[in-house]
């Protein structure tokens, strides 16, 4: 029932999409000539006139023809209208995937009705895989762009999501951050990440990824003033394995703090607990850079583990370190590393400082 109700929103929109603009003036020969001369706005208006039969005889083939002319020149209204023609099979062979392709072209320019149509397509699984979360994200974007029907549609989609919106908001934040499918809006992305990041990770899987995103944005100064202290705080709060690599790089580079190779190594070691390859290699590299004899043994420990995980480049680094160690020291590090691989996670955590 809900799918049918939402589809009725789509059907109403399809009808509205072709008439919602101000009715065109009668098509004089001069206006037709402008369309024929390549004026995209005139081409779009001529397409609408043919679709509605206003000022010219109604003709879907001609409507689709002129919409395509304008759409190929980047006219967002024409791109959306051509998508509608494909969705309904008017003037062109019905093709839901092609419809979505044109909606998304218009969406990149921020065209509200096109964004709404993408949301509907995700909801109904027409032209794209059915995805209620993506539908919610796109419908939120349509509402923010002022689409009149989006608010009502969001209520219906929200019921499907049992009013758990973190996933949809995180997805919309990603759309705003990348700017590949809708116009980039970094402040909007930050606001949504902050909203999701403030929720409990016990109740949702998305606060931690949102916290990591905030770490990255504060680190690079995208959508917010660059702030290394905030970046470090959000990375630590997220606890995501990749965050430990970022924290290690910050400590190693002295971003927002004094350069601290020991702290950097500790963060890289944290990343190894979930098997992240970069963690092993970076821990070994920093231990090697510190250069004391004890740290060279630790470098061997981490490079040996990297070799066991078949990480590219690890074998060469292991050979480099082994040149500085005695056979007895190498055997001891191998023994400790082999024991470490058999340990459960809590035991490994307790052993990190040792290496």
Characterise this structure.
The protein has helices spanning 2-17, 29-36, 40-52, 60-72, 76-88, 96-107, 112-124, 132-144, 150-160, 166-178, 186-197, 207-220, 228-238, 241-253, 261-272, 277-290, 293-308, 314-322, 327-342, 345-351. With 355 residues, it is an all-alpha fold. The protein has a domain at 261-355. Helix 1 packs antiparallel against helix 7 (112-124) and helix 6 (96-107) packs antiparallel against helix 7 (112-124). The radius of gyration is 29 Å and the shape is elongated. The model is unreliable at 1-23 (pLDDT under 50).
Number of strands: 0
Kindly state the percentage of residues in helix: over 70%
| Helix-strand topology string | HHHHHHHHHHHHHHHHHHHH
- Main sheet specs: none
Round the mean pLDDT to the nearest integer and report it.
90
The gross shape turns out to be elongated
Task: Please report which band the strand proportion falls in: under 5%, 5-15%, 15-25%, 25-35%, 35-45% or over 45%.
Answer: under 5%
Structural class estimated from helices and strands: mainly alpha
Q: Note the total helix count.
A: 20
List keywords for this structure.
355 residues; elongated; disordered N terminus
Summarize the SSE layout with pairings.
Layout: H1 2-17, H2 29-36, H3 40-52, H4 60-72, H5 76-88, H6 96-107, H7 112-124, H8 132-144, H9 150-160, H10 166-178, H11 186-197, H12 207-220, H13 228-238, H14 241-253, H15 261-272, H16 277-290, H17 293-308, H18 314-322, H19 327-342, H20 345-351
Helix pairs in contact: 1-7, 1-9, 2-3, 3-4, 4-5, 5-6, 6-7, 7-8, 8-9, 8-10, 10-11, 11-12, 12-13, 13-14, 14-15, 15-16, 16-17, 17-18, 17-19
């Amino acid at each position: 029932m809900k799918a049918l109700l939402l589809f009725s929103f789509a059907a109403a929109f399809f009808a509205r999409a072709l008439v919602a603009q101000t009715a065109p003036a009668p098509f004089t020969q001069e206006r037709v000539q402008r369309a024929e001369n390549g004026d995209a706005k005139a081409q779009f208006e001529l397409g609408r006139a043919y679709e509605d039969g206003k000022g010219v005889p109604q003709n879907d083939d001609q409507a689709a023809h002129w919409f395509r002319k304008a759409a190929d020149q980047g006219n967002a209204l024409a791109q959306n209208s051509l998508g509608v023609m494909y969705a309904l099979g008017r003037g062109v062979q019905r093709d839901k995937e092609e419809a979505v392709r044109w909606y998304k072209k218009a969406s990149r320019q921020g065209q509200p009705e096109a964004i709404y149509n993408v949301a509907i397509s995700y909801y109904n699984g027409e032209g794209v895989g059915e995805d209620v979360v993506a539908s919610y994200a796109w419908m939120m974007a349509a509402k923010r762009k002022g689409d009149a029907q989006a608010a009502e549609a969001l209520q219906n989609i929200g019921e499907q999501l049992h009013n758990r919106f973190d996933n949809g908001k995180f997805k919309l934040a990603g759309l705003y951050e990348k700017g590949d499918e809708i116009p980039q809006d970094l402040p909007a992305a930050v606001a949504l990440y902050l909203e999701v990041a403030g929720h409990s990770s016990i109740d949702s899987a998305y606060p931690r990824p949102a916290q990591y995103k905030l770490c990255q944005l504060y680190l690079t100064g995208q959508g917010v003033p660059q702030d290394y202290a905030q970046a470090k705080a959000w990375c630590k709060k997220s606890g995501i394995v990749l965050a430990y690599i970022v924290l290690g790089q910050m400590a190693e580079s002295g971003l927002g703090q004094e350069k601290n190779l020991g702290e950097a190594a500790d963060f890289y070691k944290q990343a190894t607990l979930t098997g992240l390859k970069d963690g092993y290699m970076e821990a070994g590299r920093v231990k090697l850079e510190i250069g004391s004899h004890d740290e060279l043994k630790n470098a061997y420990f981490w490079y040996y583990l990297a070799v066991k995980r078949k990480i590219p480049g690890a074998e060469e680094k292991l050979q480099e370190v082994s040149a500085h160690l005695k056979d007895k020291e190498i055997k001891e590090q191998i023994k400790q590393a082999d024991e470490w691989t058999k340990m459960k996670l809590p035991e490994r955590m307790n052993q990190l400082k040792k290496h």
